[in-house]
Amino acid sequence: MNTEIIYDINDENLDRAAEIIKNGGLVAFPTETVYGLGANALDPLAAKKIYSAKNRPSNNPLIIHISDPADAEKYCFTNELYYKLAKRFMPGPLTVILPKKDIVPYAVTGGLETVAVRVPSSKTARSFIERSGVAIAAPSANLSGKPSPTKAQHVILDMYGRIDMIIAGEDSQIGLESTILSLAEAVPKIYRPGKVTYEELKEICPDILISDAVLHMHTGRPESPGMMYQHYAPKAKVTIIDSDDKTRTAFLINKTDCGILCYDEDKELLSMPYSKSLGSKSEPLEQAKLLFARLREFDENDDITQIYAPMPSDKGVGLAVLNRLIRAAGFDVKEL
Ligand code: TXA
Ligand code: MG
Q: How would DSSP label each residue in 279-303?
């Protein structure tokens, strides 16, 4: 398939992108979290094309993207809590799960009776959605299993030749996917942590749970099917080192042929051949922004077959970094 890449983001080009959506095609577009791979959310055939372009299992449901929180009424049954959350966090990196209306095809929800809804804060994304005149179903624009794309170049590498258009816009400011909160359960539950934290959500809804699947390998069917698969993985094996900094440095200092993810503060490790910093140890937002790009950079070097990473904090945005890293590691954590 011929993929058109748009570097110049102007009205005319966004209208052309919207036209592709109206005609049942696929367009990758930037958002503040990660790049999305969009299709008309009301067109089951278009949704099916997303699954084949990504090699994604078809029981893994898609998030639908709208440009205004009130548009959710067309697609799902909202409630008071939805509007409280919308007032505080939308547009932004929060996805909410609600019971779906009939208009949303099962091809989009992976057969579920619920649908995930999000209003991105990226101006390019919202303008593109508005022009399309319909909700846009979009998973992250990576091949299934790869780290999510945070730069246009990542999307081009994974999707060129598989989709109609790539809107090559800005780098994703946040760098990890949205927080997913289900309002379709008796007690609201976080299915996936993100920039909107547990602590912040608790201010709006004091009763809130975190799904077990966030930090643990799931054996049964998790609430969020996307948590089932090993995810976000680079080609090399990833191992998380759970220890104090001194012990981690002592363990890694001779591993000159391994990829080493560390922090700005890890001066000794940073002088090793294949080490990369995730930013400051005390800045989880910086770590969030860099994680997927760093994992992809290791992919560019075929000599690296093993990557070691530190254990992120499980507080605030740290929980989101930990959730992604532990999946990239296939839950391989080495305690020292
Ligand atoms: O930041 C984001 O959310 C990005 C950008 C593009 O908006 N999108 C994204 O989509 O991360 P994706 O498909 O890579 O991840 C969506 C996750 C999956 O784990 C899926 O299982 C879950 O959302 N999900 C979607 N609809 C659901 C539903 N109705 N019930 C439970 N989980 C759902
Ligand atoms: Mg994804």
A: S-TT-HHHHHHHHHHHHHHHHT-TT
